[in-house]
Design goal:
Structural class: alpha+beta
CATH architecture of the largest domain: Beta Barrel
Shape: elongated
Oligomer: single chain
Number of strands: 35
CATH class of the largest domain: Mainly Beta
Number of domains: 6
Strand order of the largest sheet: 18-19-20-21-22-23-24-25-26-27-28-30-31-32-33-35
Helix content: 10-25%
Radius of gyration: 38 Å
């Protein structure tokens, strides 16, 4: 009961004791409300427990006052009698005009506004000074949960005309208290480092310069306790318990020490494993999917994974809503767990309809041809998953999701709802580099991966830089046949000034055309066949090295080349851009056929294995090989086909094309054999871990170019390490790297900072 209500009731008691106002009962002829400003008289009358025609006496007076105070709208209520008219005098509480925050950076104003709404402070509502303590406490709790224990909060109320107030809240957030130690007490099976290394709370690793791991958060600690529980349950400790958790703050409120007291309990093993329920798939086949065996240490993760594998197998047979429930029977004395996997396949269902939404730029048929799950066919979970992967691998698709919906009134039908988010499919790509001798070098290409919504790729490349003048037109239809075979055409002209590209001093004019056929042999394997023709003319200058002039004296300076390129690609990556798992291996060969002015061949290999370490971390292992040589009557591999290494696309930290043999002018000459390898750890950008358009990595690159395969020497390999960042910005891809050579020799051209720029339309 509020102070105003007590005062009103005391006044009523004094009047009653003096034998005054309400000494006699009377019938109310009318009720008048005095003092209203914003609240209407009709609204106020609805709160009164009496009405015209009622008999009013002393007992009803307290009831009226109490009812009006309980509305929260009034700060004072008084009653009076004018004849048989009941007069109610009220004083309204002010309304909140604005709520303003100053000094808040860690928590946005929207978040603080939502928090205050829960305690009754909101713009437009009635202001009650009695809730200010609750307001301050709620704000303080918001900051304490983020580890800001030195937060200072000052609330100022400014009265305005028409019975309104402004609430100004000034916040001095203070710095986040840092975690200095996380200690687990009671652990015997594992040491402290083992059980806390996966915690999000703790002391940052020495190399994690931007880590916020030492920022305390109640939510982070709760997640860490669940990770700790999972760690023990996966190691067989079924009775594991967290007895208590102490978060200790130093007197200066700057450092935090966390102590977690646990009871490990006993370790349990698997006693027996059985299958029960309806076996719509041979039991032997399902048993092979179970990862746990009698005698093994109990692991909750393996138990759950086995149930998911069985479920996945059942969905492949059309049982879209299969339920596999592992039922444990614990023997505390023997410390064993008997597992029974109860299989409830449910009804077998088929797909009635597939609905596609989000395709604002693309024809629906372009997406449907990627689907492996068909309408009117039995539901197949594996084919649904594969359909999703194929959709999100399209270069013009950012995300693809598939939802399974039951058909109302039917037990054996489902609809698939596919929602796609399309990305910009046209791009104007600009390649940029910097050389101390040549300055900024630029190249460009205009491409459309989804020409007029057909899924066809059309590229027009035009370059007029110091290095190259290029005109190229190519068209690719990725679904030339209904079985997924592709066909493409390309015609090009290119004039290259090799000296400007940081290689030997010559220039070339190259013109040609080719046609490409892609033949899929499976979901993951494709063979490409590319016959083509090219005319090459070499131009020299006064300083052209003798290695080139000698070749031209033997072979001439103009060549008609008929070539055949065959390549095999195995690709299981989950997506083309920012892949987080899967592999890609490509074997390629190109040979100039007899009848060409030069006869030579080249073989290339590039491979990448990507391992998903967590939801945000992936590890990539890559390698590449390239070799070439002459055949038939020629044992020479043309210098204009030489392989190069160095730069942002191969060995970062070294200048573009600078690795390997050099000519008589000491310019990079390239070679007939190249080898590269790399290790790259991908992780989200610090402070923006939820931004899927940005990804960082730490890398180690290794590579070198040699005259021939037989010249390979491991001591000649170059290596670098550093950091890289790729941002799929609204205007296109932006890639940056900072590499530091780990292995270099005198004379190597070092280029620590490298970048590749792009723009989309």
């Amino acid at each position: 009961m509020t102070r105003q209500l007590l005062q009103a009731l005391m006044l009523y008691g004094l009047l009653l004791a003096s034998g005054g106002l309400w000494a006699q009962s009377y019938v109310i002829d009318d009720i008048e409300i005095e003092g209203l400003e914003r609240i209407t008289a009709g609204t106020t009358l609805t709160f009164l427990p009496i009405q015209v025609g009622d008999t009013f006496n002393d007992a009803r007076s307290a009831e009226v006052i109490r009812a009006l105070f309980q509305t929260g709208f009034f700060s004072d209520v008084r009653l009076a009698r004018r004849g048989n008219v009941l007069v109610v005098f009220v004083e309204e509480r002010p309304a909140i005009n604005e709520i303003r925050f100053t000094g808040n950076r860690d928590i946005p104003s929207e978040g603080l506004t939502d928090a205050l709404r829960n305690v009754g402070l909101q713009r437009g509502r009635v202001f009650n000074r009695t809730i200010l303590d609750r307001v301050e406490n709620e704000l303080r709790q918001q900051y304490l949960s983020r580890g800001r224990y030195n937060v200072q909060i000052d609330i100022e109320i400014t009265e305005l005309p028409r019975n309104r107030v402004d609430v100004d809240i000034t916040i001095a957030e203070g710095r986040v208290a840092k975690i200095r130690e996380v200690n687990v007490v009671g652990n015997e099976a594992f040491d402290n480092r083992d059980v806390t290394r996966r915690f999000e709370s703790g002391v940052p690793r020495w190399w994690a310069f931007f880590s916020r791991r030492d920022n305390y958060s109640r939510e982070k600690l709760s997640g860490d306790l669940e990770r700790l529980r999972s760690r023990y349950l996966d190691a067989g400790f079924l009775n594991f318990e967290v007895d208590s958790t102490q978060v200790t703050l130093t007197p200066d409120r700057k450092d935090i020490y966390i102590t977690i007291n646990i009871d490990e309990g006993d370790r349990f093993t698997i006693g027996s494993v059985d299958l029960a329920g309806e076996m719509v798939v041979p039991a032997r086949e399902l048993e092979d999917l179970i990862e746990v065996e009698p005698g093994q240490i109990f692991s909750r993760r393996r138990v759950v994974d086995s149930a998911e594998e069985i479920t996945r197998r059942l969905t492949a047979e059309g049982f879209a809503f299969a339920n596999v429930n592992p039922v444990p029977e614990v023997d505390e004395d023997a410390r064993t767990v008997a597992l029974s996997y109860f299989v409830d396949p449910g009804p077998r269902v088929y797909v009635r309809r597939i609905l596609i939404t989000g395709n604002t730029r693309t024809q629906e048929s372009v997406y449907r041809r990627e689907l492996r799950q068909m309408e009117s066919a039995w539901f197949n979970g594996e084919q649904v998953d594969r359909s999703r992967v194929r959709l999100q691998r399209l270069p013009f698709v950012e995300t693809a999701n598939i939802e399974t919906r039951r058909v109302a009134g039917s037990d054996d039908e489902v609809d698939l709802e596919i929602s796609v988010t399309e990305r910009l499919s046209g791009s104007l790509s600009l390649g940029a580099g910097f050389s101390q001798n040549q300055g900024i070098l630029l190249t460009g290409s205009l491409s459309q991966d989804n020409f007029m919504g057909t899924g066809n790729r059309v590229t027009v490349s035009v370059s007029n830089s110091q290095v190259s003048q290029l005109v190229n037109l190519s068209v690719l239809n990725p679904h030339y046949t209904i079985h997924g075979a592709s066909r493409g055409f390309s015609i090009f002209y290119q004039k290259i000034d090799a000296e400007e590209a940081n290689v030997s001093r010559f220039s070339s004019d190259r013109a040609g055309a080719n046609v490409t056929y892609g033949i899929p042999f499976s979901e993951f394997d494709t063979v490409n066949i590319r016959p083509g023709f090219e005319n090459v003319r070499i131009n020299t200058v006064a300083t052209t090295p003798t290695e080139i002039t000698d070749f031209l004296e033997r072979q001439g300076d103009s060549y008609n080349l008929f070539s055949l390129e065959v390549s095999y690609t195995h690709d299981t990556r989950d997506r083309v851009i920012f892949a987080s798992s899967g592999r890609r291996h490509r074997l390629g060969s190109e040979v100039t056929v007899p009848g060409s002015d030069l006869q030579y061949y080249q073989f290339t290999y590039s491979g990448e294995e990507i391992f998903k370490l967590s939801d945000t971390y992936s590890l990539s292992l890559s390698a590449g090989l390239a070799l070439g040589d002459g055949y038939g009557g020629s044992d020479e591999f043309p210098f204009f086909e030489h392989f190069f290494a160095g730069g942002i696309r191969s060995v970062r930290g070294f200048e573009d094309n600078s690795l390997g043999p050099r000519d008589s002018n000491d310019d990079p000459f390239g070679g007939a054999f190249r080898t590269t390898a790399g290790v790259e750890l991908f992780f989200p950008l610090p402070f923006a871990s939820d931004n899927d358009a940005v990804r960082m990595s730490s890398f180690i690159d290794v590579g070198q170019v040699y005259d021939r395969v037989g010249d390979f020497e491991a001591d000649e390999l170059r290596a670098s390490a550093g950091l890289a960042l790729t941002w799929m910005s609204p205007v296109g891809p932006l890639s940056f790297s900072y590499g530091v050579p780990l292995r270099e020799e005198d004379g190597d051209d070092i280029q620590n900072v490298q970048f590749l720029l792009g723009a989309s339309f």
